[in-house]
Amino acid sequence: MHINDVQHLSVTLESPVEIKSVQAIIYTDHRQVEVDLDESSAPEAGNQPSRYALNNRNGLRIKGGEDLGVKSAAAEELLKTFYFSGSWKVEDTHNASYQTKLAATDVLGHSSSVTLAWSDACGIPNGGSYTLSSNCTISSVDGVDNGDLVIATGTTLTLNSTFAYNPGKTVTLNGAVAIGSGGQFKKTYLWMVDGDADGYASNSIQYTQDVAPAGGRRRYMLVTSQYDCDDANASIYPGVITSSGSCGSCTYSATCANAGSGSYSYTYCSSNGSYTSASGSCTCTRDTTGAVCSSWSSCSGSYPSCTGTQTAFVCSAGTCGGTISQSCNLANGTFCSGWSACSGAIPSGSCSASGTQAASTCSNGSCSGSTSQSCALTAANGTLCGSYGSCSGSVAYPNCSASGIQTAPTCNSGSCSGSTSRSCTVYASSGTSCGSTSYGTCGSCTYSSTCTNTGSGTQSYTSYACNGSGSCISGSGTQSCSCTRNTNGTACGSYSVSACSGSSYCSTANYVCSSGSCSFSSYSGCTACTCGCSCGTSSCGCSTVYNCSRCSDTYACQYASFNSCSSACTSPFNVSYSFSSGCASLCGSGCSSACNSCGPCP
Prior knowledge:
This protein is an all-beta fold. The chain has five domains: 6-119 and 244-251 and 260-279, no CATH class; 130-221, no CATH class; 287-336, no CATH class; 433-484, no CATH class; 491-595, no CATH class. Helices cover 2% and strands 45% of the residues. It has two helices and 41 strands. The strands form 14 sheets. It has a six-stranded antiparallel beta sheet, with no helix packed on it. Strands 23, 24, 25 and 26 form a four-stranded antiparallel beta sheet that branches. Strands 33, 34, 35 and 36 form a four-stranded antiparallel beta sheet that branches. The model is unreliable at 61-77, 498-506 and 526-602 (pLDDT under 50).
């Protein structure tokens, strides 16, 4: 490779899981370049890189034939192939070191790497003849060991250091040689130090001298560009694994798979002469027989138990085909008893209320938990939800009580819509008569006049009345009463008549009671006399007072000064007195105002 050349890298990987990244780390004499490779398609068949395998010392070696280990068919079937590629531009030369480390990491975080060593642009082999076909610059000790050198036409070999060729070997110069500062051709041998004679030099230093240095060995007998990690131990050289861990971080394609892939860490001697830690893939095995390969079914049991059984599939012969069962606890909160009766109190006058009922539940496999819920309380049909009304019925005289009916509302299917009735006693109101009143004799009678046939008096009595509680109570007292009598014929008054002129005259007019009134009865001491007029006419024409006799026993003119007489007067007296005292006497005898021309009676 020359400066400004582009180096193309193509990597083929095998892995049981997906490769996450591949990085190329390029080491030159003066710097380190890191290049991230991209996943790509498979390269052409002619450009496929050689496959790798583990040798009998667990080292990574190119598969070159039957001498290298081959992976088992089972392991090969587990692997998938991945391709990555990339490129970088050469910006540095090398003489002592030129290596590329390829490091891959999978999605599980496992990593593996391999380090490749490259020759420089001159391409001089470790041993044997060499033809220079392109320009080449030598900056450190180098040369052709155990072979001839040909510098082809049109090429130039620039020497800035010693270039050796062996005695007895030829150098054919068809091109040119440019000798720079410190440069020279020298006929001698090329040596490197290989103290344990394992074919790997202890470092990159080359010696140009005729005899071997201590521990020296001819270069053509050594593997160049790879250096010994322990030049005192012939069993340690580049590629040898010096320590290895066990296979771990195993992954399996399925729960029941008995074979899978894993990784192990190891330390090996790298080509630069240092011990390097790395990891590699490996095959894991296990026995999955009887391992649970599915989720356990839900725990099932029978009420009222709190335990049950659940099943799962198990591995058998690498597949998930068997079954297994185990006891289990039913889920906490599973009912293990029925609901209790709804408890609570229904307020008086109501037919329903909110109550509470409880039930037992499972708790860690035992029926020791509990839960509760609200419930509806309903009063029994017929329960009173109100008060009885008043007693209805009637009490017949003379009773003070009787049988009646009273009703009250009752519960019906949780509502106050029913009714009930019962017998009751109806009581007559206090003071209601419960028997006939008995009366004593009416006495102490008083009358308004001599002729009055009815009057008032007092009498005792005994009455019977209800007390409002069903009992008939008697009571006594006095009251007014009416008195009667017969006054017919009883003298009720008399009047003297002495105004008539002449020797004879009516002296007394007598009155007696008749039908309750004081009526004229007769005259006594009466002598007939003659007046100049006749009674009963509409105009007597009398201007003086006359003593008159009876006029047809109906009208009488007694002591009067007549201006006119009314025939319409039907009372015993149709007369007008000129003496007020006489008028008063008539009134006292029962004369009405219609028959009294003197005016109304006082």
